[in-house]
Amino acid sequence: MSSWTGSPSAAAPAPAAVRPREDRAQADRMALSAATGKGAHIRTEDVCAWLAERRRATAVHVARIPFAELDEWRFERGTGNIAHRSGRFFTVEGMQVTEDDGPRREWQQPVIRQPEVGILGILAKEFDGVLHFLMQAKSEPGNTNPLQLSPTVQATRSNYTKAHGGTDVQLIDYFVRPDRDRVIADVLQSEQGSWFYRKSNRNMIVETADEIPARDDFRWLTLGQIAELLHEDDVVNMNARSVLACVPYRDTAPGALLSDVQLLSWFTGERSRRDVRAHRIPLASVRGWKHGVEAIEHEEGRYFKVVAVSVRGGNREVAGWNQPLIEPVGAGLAAFLVREIDGVPHVLVHARAEGGFLDTVELAPTVQCTPGDYAHLPAADRPPFLDAVLDAPLSRIRYQAVHSEEGGRFLNARSRYLAVDAATASLDPPPGYAWATPAQLRALTRHGHYLNMEARTLLACLNATAARTRGGL
Questions:
Q1: What are the distances in angstroms from CA 269 to CA 211, 361, 365, 383?
Q2: 391-428 pLDDT tens trace
Q3: Low complexity: which segments have biased composition (predicted)?
């Protein structure tokens, strides 16, 4: 059999244009932005005053209402699920979870199902040779401090396709149809698996050279400025923290306790050995939860409630609406134990199973819980390392701040985020735990569903701590 080689006169095809698989200069640009504490447009110390001014100008009013006053929402016949009359946005349904490990082997609960993928996008641009990032002052009805720094774009598909009949989402085109030569980060990341059923958002950073018209609700900030603000309570919102965790910093550490292959092998083993089965069930049939006029809550008063609110004002695409929200019972806690191994900072990660995860387990902080849910239990039945974190003296705390969770779906959901020095912690942790460097975790954020939301928040905070100290983590 002969092969065709073409006629002698045929022109040879042009060779394919190849490019480096990784832009090494990009990490240097990120490092410069992280080291720049003085922005080109606003001083860091003036950001909170700007946020306060926007808070006054776009005041949001949130009131609890009975479920019967959810005029755009209804309890569906048969299932009892809470759904929007348009069939869009999200639903509150039931979930049954069975797992082979952990204190609870089987349970049922309400859960938010939102199958559409939203966009969390931050626009980047160079000013005076330094990358700046366009942050938005955006109101979320569920946040105690409603207006916080958010990504440039923070929108569900229902929002940016205007299922609500409201105004356009500003700057959305940079992220719906990005110029691939301008993409800095683009990855699907999970939301909280304890409250969402298999929810993902597209986390993006896209650079532009365009002139972006000045807007009252937007400011350009360096990574160094954002790092300072991450040390303040309730200033940088959850979605912004998730995207910031995906910034491609360079790894300057000489090595790690576990090689990348060893860390991935351990994690793959954790995913393989854990048997977590979750499926949706009608909300009306969920056992252990009572349905009231204004709340669906656990019979023992723990975990969370499903409530309804009416919202007016703010700087959203519509002027007013009502919706269901999940309200935690008590404040959360998320903490990494941190120690140096041969001079290299490491954090203790936990392969954590949550019913709503897409793939069994994700890497989580050393401790992630609502401490009040375990206060009645003896020490042996409490989460590992919880008491070590709660009892840590101030001298061992490397980072701490209280951050709000997703205010578009959760009401008054706040968690205390900590990095706690554990210089004497064992290098051979219990099953389900492993030591990893922050740089190893940053590399994993380039891929979806490896780090959970709380771990990504803490990673963004550790990056902020490193930017402040010009080294360390």
A1: 49, 11, 18, 21
A2: 999 999 999 999 999 999 999 999 999 999 999 999 99
A3: 7-17
Helix/strand/coil for 185 = strand
Residue carrying structure tokens 């980072």: 399
d(CA 421, CA 24): 32
Beta-bridge partners for 155:
119
Of the CATH numbers 3.40.50.1980, 3.40.50.300, 3.90.79.10, 3.40.190.10, which one belongs to the domain with range 23-473? Answer: 3.90.79.10
**Cβ neighbours around 306 below 10 Å, total:** 24
Q: Contact, 266 vs 436, CB < 8 A?
A: no
Token digits of residue 369: 């819980």
Report whether 319 contacts 313 (CB < 8 A).
Answer: yes
Which tens digit of pLDDT belongs to each residue from 2-34?
Answer: 444 444 455 666 667 898 888 889 999 999 999
Using CA atoms, how far residue 214 sits from 166, 225, 315, in Å, is 22, 19, 16
The answer to whether 223 touches 131, Cβ cutoff 8 Å, is: yes
